[in-house]
Amino acid sequence: MRIALAVAMLALALPAYAAGHAVQIKGMKFNPAKLNVAVGDTVTFTNADSKPHTATALDGSFDTGRLAMGKSATVRITASGKHDFRCLVHPSMKGTVAAK
To answer: What is the pLDDT of residues 6-59, one digit of tens each?
Structure first.
């Protein structure tokens, strides 16, 4: 019983690890355009298009800055809720990150 209790206490003391998610920007689209993540997770946006793009949250929670072809940026999701984002260079490109 003591061993089980010690293992349970150790498990609770260990830090939770954030997951990493990937979004590819290609063909003037975010792929995937909708992500479900946990607060603390990261999202890496990679531009595979010949044109520059951004991934900018409308609520100001994240912004990759301008990404040239082949460049990536990683953002951490720090708040729960729905975070709609778009490319500031091409506003018709849209996506959503939903965080719990």
So the answer is: 555 545 554 567 799 999 999 999 999 999 999 999 999 999 999 999 999 999
Residue spans of alpha helices (H) in the chain: 2-13
Strand partners of residue 36: 98
Domain that holds residue 71: 17-99
- E-only strand ranges, 7-50: 20-26, 29-31, 34-37, 42-47
* Composition of the chain by helix, strand, coil, percent to 5: 10, 40, 45
Residue 22 inside a domain? The answer is: yes
Number of domains in the chain: 1
Please state, in angstroms and rounded to a whole number, the distance separating the CA atoms of residues 40 and 29: 25
